[in-house]
Fold:
Amino acid sequence: MAERWFKVGELPRGESVYCNEEGEHAKEVDYTYLVEMTPDELKSVVQGEPDCR
Structure:
């Protein structure tokens, strides 16, 4: 089964931010793939631990 990602917000630069069912976060790059986010990037999108499940 494919891993599911859900859009949860955007970075100030306009990149989309996604969260998977395990609570991991990634940002979209060039509309083709997801990459890991730095802690500072994550803080700029959400405060605290969102429940993505």
